[in-house]
Design a protein that fits this description.
six-stranded parallel sheet, oxidoreductase, NAD(P)H_dehydrogenase_qn, Flavodoxin_fold, about 270 residues, 6 helices, alpha/beta, Flavoprotein-like_sf, Rossmann fold, NAD(P)H dehydrogenase (quinone) activity
Length: about 270
């Protein structure tokens, strides 16, 4: 498989750096083709502004969405963004690796998403009508491909449990899993998470790396998270409400958008 690994930590000698090296070594041993986007090493520009869109007129009010649409359609985005888009189209699997900072991804990685996931590329795709509302949430540019998060947290695992003070880790990662990866079509694998990262001892590191190697070996076979498909009948169009009778299990919030009984999306990308 072709695998793109996007790394978002400023220190290569960190725990994240060590985990990255373990993952890349295992992927190489399995014979996969791997490309790495090390955002800090590359000096990635994280902020979307007018400079991202050479065709944007200086005489008009700057509208990022419209500028993104125009730039992508004309092939006139900046060279760094075009290079990352090419990597994404090449990859069968996307891995995003980052420390959980203030309950989300670091700004540099969010900026990578903001700039690379352009209108017409990752969103604004497909027919919008009374039958469909775009190719998204299980459909779209990345349908048939897989994605996975590699995450470290400073807090202990119980802090991120269903009754933990920080909230369940699955809820904290839902906006990334569902809104950034599932939205443009990726089948999203369960995350690899290492807790208590600042106090991880040698024994804990050995356990984490053994699990990580196993996860890398299972990229093609691990069942993805069972998110509901937008255009598959679970939601009304165009108001995008879950249909009556679905999700009536007592669950609420993000859990409503999971369908554990549904078959996994097909891996159709070649």
């Amino acid at each position: 498989m072709n695998i793109l690994h996007v790394f978002a930590h400023p220190e290569p000698r960190s725990l994240n750096g060590a985990l990255r090296d373990v993952a890349l070594a295992e992927l190489a041993a399995q014979g996969h083709a791997v490309r790495v986007s090390d955002l800090h090493a590359a000096g990635w520009k994280a902020v979307v502004d007018r400079a991202d869109f050479p065709l944007a007129s200086e005489d008009e009010r700057f509208r990022p969405v419209g500028a993104s649409r125009q730039g992508f359609a004309a092939g006139a985005l900046t060279a760094d963004v075009l290079a990352e888009q090419e990597k994404l189209l090449w990859a069968d699997v996307l891995i995003l690796q980052f420390p959980l900072w203030w309950f989300t991804m670091p700004a540099i990685l969010k900026g990578w998403v903001d700039r690379v996931f352009a209108y017409g590329f990752a969103y604004g795709v497909g027919e919008h009508s009374d039958r469909r509302w775009g190719d998204r949430y299980g459909e779209g540019t990345f349908a048939g491909r897989r994605a996975m998060l590699m995450v470290t947290t400073g807090g202990w695992a119980p802090h991120y449990s269903p009754r933990g003070i920080n909230g369940p880790i699955d809820d904290l990662l839902f906006p990334i899993h569902h809104g950034i990866l599932w939205y443009p079509g990726y089948a999203v694998l369960p995350p690899f998470v290492v807790h208590d990262a600042d106090r991880l001892d040698a024994e804990g590191f050995a356990r984490a790396t053994a699990e990580l190697r196993a996860r890398m070996r299972g990229l093609a076979t691990t069942p993805p998270l069972p998110f509901r498909r937008q255009n598959g009948g679970d939601y009304t169009i165009p108001d995008l409400q879950l249909r009556p009778g679905l999700g009536d299990t007592g669950a609420g919030g993000f859990a409503l958008h999971s369908d554990a009984g549904a078959p996994p999306p097909p891996d159709t990308h070649k």
